[in-house]
Write a structure and sequence with these properties.
Elements (H helix, E strand, L loop, with lengths): L11 H16 L12 E6 L5 H12 L3 E6 L11 H8 L6 E4 L3 H10 L4 E3 L7 H15 L6 E5 L4 H13 L2 E5 L8 H14 L3 E4 L10 E4 L11 H8 L6 H7 L3 E4 L11 H4 L6 H21 L2
Parallel strand pairs: 1-2, 1-3, 3-4, 5-6, 5-8, 6-7, 8-9
Helix pairs in contact: 1-5, 1-11, 2-11, 3-4, 5-6, 5-11, 6-7
Bound molecules: phosphoric acid mono(formamide)ester and norvaline.
The site of phosphoric acid mono(formamide)ester has 9 residues, from helix 2.
Length: 303
């Protein structure tokens, strides 16, 4: 049995297989209409979601299966009964657990006590299914992934960590351009860098905005992630130099702009860039559906 908890679980061939399968599902969805017939999943969210919830529910539906949404926004997992007991119950009924949680440890616990695949739909540390959709979008627009250079600008967060992990496995050069003290998780970065060494790509963390120059892809995300109550306005001064605006994008020479969304227009990205010719943010959002279909098929059916 396999899980998707961090993104480190799969090798390059497996990532490519997921991306291939997602592309095929996008081209010919009817071929897969019964792939999860009679199979199901619990979709558990401790935090809000538009894209991830919608696309996981639809992924089950499109594959002939069923996703049961469990709203945990009014009470974290482990409050009403232990996480272990929660998992033991659910695994008597469903074939997978999809979880958006505050703490990565919650997902690890579900995997420990459960008996079905667990899929990380965002935690404090990772957003692994998101970045699979992101790299699929890169491939669709640039025709390749390996050897591409992607710059992430802004707050080093769960999405940044996952871009590093999947990028290292897929052979992407990832530059994290973040203010001092706001970089990605150091342990995850170091582990990803070992993987990158074997893949022949480079990972970098810097606060120099000029390092965006020469990158084919520019990526940003919110300056304040879910679960952090810091007012966005209060960090604006610190992060504004890292904003994806027309001047920065032009000077970088980039070919593609990505954002996992939701966007805070006028903060990490301007309207001009988000609605401009290089932006593929809604392709990225669409690709969440195709990636989730491929992931559920792989993890539940074991293929
Ligand atoms: N990108 C993303 O995960 O969006 P949601 O928070 O709306 O699911
Ligand atoms: N870093 C953001 C991603 C949202 C999809 C957050 O965790 O809120």
């Amino acid at each position: 049995m396999r899980h998707l908890l961090t993104g480190f679980e799969f090798d390059r061939d497996e990532y490519q297989q997921i991306l291939e399968r997602a592309s095929d599902m996008k081209r010919e969805p009817a071929k897969y209409a019964a792939a999860l017939k009679g199979r199901s999943g619990a979709i558990m969210f401790e935090k809000p979601s538009l894209r991830t919830r919608t696309t996981f529910e639809l992924a089950f539906y499109r594959l002939g299966g069923h996703g049961v949404y469990l709203d945990l926004q009014n009470g974290e997992l482990g409050k009403r009964e232990s996480i272990g007991d929660y998992a033991r119950n659910l695994c008597r009924w469903v074939d997978s657990l999809v979880g958006r949680v505050y703490a990565q440890s919650t997902l690890e616990e579900l995997a420990t006590y459960g008996s079905v695949p667990v899929i990380n739909a965002l935690s404090d540390l990772y957003h692994p299914a998101q970045v699979m959709a992101d790299y699929l979008t890169v491939r669709e627009h640039l025709g390749k992934i390996e050897g591409v250079t992607l710059a992430y600008l802004g707050d080093g967060n769960n999405v940044t960590n996952s871009l590093l992990v999947a990028g290292a496995i897929l052979g992407v050069n990832v530059r994290c351009i973040c203010p001092q003290g706001s970089g990605p998780d150091v342990q995850i970065f170091n582990k990803a860098r070992e993987v990158a060494g074997r893949s022949g790509c480079t990972l970098e963390v810097t606060s120099e905005v000029g390092r965006a120059q020469g990158c084919e892809v520019l990526y940003t995300d919110t300056w304040v992630s879910m679960g952090d109550n810091t007012p966005l306005e209060s960090v604006k001064k610190k992060f504004l130099p890292y904003q994806l605006n027309a001047a920065l994008v032009r000077d970088s020479g980039a070919q593609l702009v990505l954002h996992c969304l939701p966007a805070h227009r006028g903060y990490e990205i301007t309207d001009e860039v988000m609605d401009g010719p290089l932006s593929a943010v809604f392709d990225e959002a669409e690709n969440r559906l195709h990636i989730h279909m491929a992931l559920l098929d792989l993890l539940i059916n074991g293929r």
